Structures are given as C-alpha cells and as structure tokens.
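residues and backbone:
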Amino acid sequence: MSDTRDPGDAWVTAADGNSYWGRFGAAGLLLHDPGRGVLLQHRADWSHHGGTWGIPGGARHEHEDAVAAAVRESNEEAGVPLDGVLPRYRHVLDRGGWTYATIVADAAHPFEPVIADAESHALEWVPLDRVEEYPLHPGFGASWPLLRPLLTAPPAIVIDAANVIGSVPDGWWKDRRGAAERLRDRIVALGGAPVAPGLVGLSDAALPGIDAAYPEWVLVTEGVARDVESAGEVRVVGAPELGDDTIVTETRALVERGLRVSVVTADEELRTRVEAVGAAATRGPKKLLKRLPG
C-alpha cells in the first residue's frame, strides 16, 4: 500500500528541544461567529493532548501559506466551508525551527460544523465568556487571553484618497479621477494579502506574536473622483461635499460596529477629528504606499 500522507505530516524537534507536529509548521483557525462564539474542537483521546478543547488545525503543506492551511485543515476536520472564512489577524508562535500560526477570523456566513474525521470527539460554538470553563489545550489556553480581544475588533483602514494621491508629485493633478482609480487598483492588487499590524496601530510590544492584519478597506474620494466605483476588496465612498467630513462619518460608523480603525492621512486637523471619534491609529501616506504593489 502506498503512503498517501503529505510530506508535512511528521514530527520535528524544535530549538527548544520539544517535538511538534508538522515538518513545515502548523496552522489553526480561531473562527468567530458573533451570534454563537468561537468554534472549538474536543480532541480525540488518542491525539496529542487528547481530551482537551482547542481549535481545528494541523500540519502545513510545503509552500502552503498559513491561511490556506488553517482553512484546509478546518474543512477536513470540522466541515468549515472553504468560502466561509474571513481572515482578520495572524498570530505566530515561533519555537525555533517550528511555527504555529493561528488565523483569527470571522465566519462569512452561518454554518453547522460536522465531525469529518477521527480527530474530534465533538465540535461546538462556545460563547466567548465560557471558553475558559473548558479544559483547554495548553497551547490554546496560553494564547487565549491575547487572542480574545481581537475577535471583537476586526481591522479596517480608511484612506483619505486626495491626501494620499497628493503626497506623490507624479502628475496626479492632470487626471484626479484616474489617480484615484490607480490607487484603488493598487490596493485591489494586494488580493487580500495581509498588511503589517503596525498599519492598523498594533505593536508587537502590546500584542506579541501578531504579525499580520487583514483589514476591511475603505477609500474616500472627493471632487471629480467621487464617482469612482468600488472594486475587489476596496469599498469606495464618494464624498458629496468635503472629503474630511465623509472620512469622519465613515470612521465613526466603523468604530460603532466594533472595528479597529486606522485612518491614512497626513492632514493634522483630520487626524485630530478621527481620533476624537475613536480611530485606533492614524498613519501617513508613505506608510501605506510602500506596502502597495506597483
């Protein structure tokens, strides 16, 4: 009989001297449904730390990114729909030669988990305030206090398009609408790729191990560019009058939804206004532009 296991399905010894599952590291999915809580897996007795509760996940394949691995493993173990995951943050535990990536995500739509293999005794949606009542897998239990606040504060970035475009003397004044479309398209070209957590106001000192954020993108345009259309991951909002007023309105609405909002602008007065309505951070145009392709 041929061995159909993936090459990643193997134990490795890390620099700390302990053995971990996953030759290329491992990844898990901390999936949140605001109405029901987080999806937890009661691990089969024969598995590592059997009988405890944790999150679905497993060994990564070679060259497989953490999101793809976490979603694939969760689909295989718990029937999580492949189109049912909206990544928000990535947390990485590095043991030296072996890493475990936790993808903090929202459920894109309601679904019922299904025990799809022998690795689970049970699967449950557990309210956030009840998670610590369960006998947790040691690794998950140690990271839970850090990860829990992220579940109710997904990231968003609101961009002052006129200010960002005007920060680079590339002839934008000859075609303001075209310049706004090019900025939108550069964000779309990210293809859902993560940004550095610093762009949404998260520091490693405050939240160690959080190395990526997957934000909701809002591009606010004005004047001749106000009818630029949304595309891909980017929601474009045309300001009926002053762009600054619309940026403040959009920021307030996102904060009221519970999102962690960063506003990209170099306008000091606007920075003061958005911070007053709850923006977690403001960032200058260069911090955004250097992260965009093109």
Notes: The longest strand covers residues 85-94. The chain has seven helices and 15 strands.
